[in-house]
Amino acid sequence: MRIFTIILSFIAVGLIILNATKVDLDHPFEGESIIALITIVAALCAIALMAILRIAKRIEQKHKKGTNV
Predict the structure, then answer these.
(1) What pLDDT sits at residue 49?
(2) CA 23 to chain CA mean position, Å
(3) Around Cβ 16, how many Cβ atoms within 10 Å?
(4) Where in the chain are the domains?
């Protein structure tokens, strides 16, 4: 699961970089620029969700480790 979240985070970072090059700074809310901005926001959400999942799994492991004692 850890490798999956890391790979997904790297893919999301790649999408952010790719779409950042497609944003027209003169007209950011028109045409393909708005699609690029939406994709950037979606990738940021995916990164946040993967971080939350990793933290939750770490807490779950510590909780299981503590109850076995």
Answers:
(1) 96
(2) 19
(3) 18
(4) 2-67
> What is d(CA 27, CA 48) in angstroms, rounded to the nearest whole number?
28
The sign of the CA dihedral 41, 13, 1, 63 is negative
**Residue the block writes with tokens 């999956």:** 4
Most distant CA pair in the chain: distance in Å? 61
> Which residue has tokens 């969700």?
49
| Other CB atoms within 10 Å distance of the CB of residue 43 | 20
Instruction: Give the residue ranges of the chain where pLDDT is below 70.
Output: 68-69
Query: Structure pTM?
Result: 0.84
Q: What does the alpha-carbon distance between residue 28 and residue 57 come to, in Å, rounded to a whole number?
A: 38
- 39 alpha-carbon distance from chain centroid: 11
Pairwise CA distance, residues 35 & 28, whole Å: 10
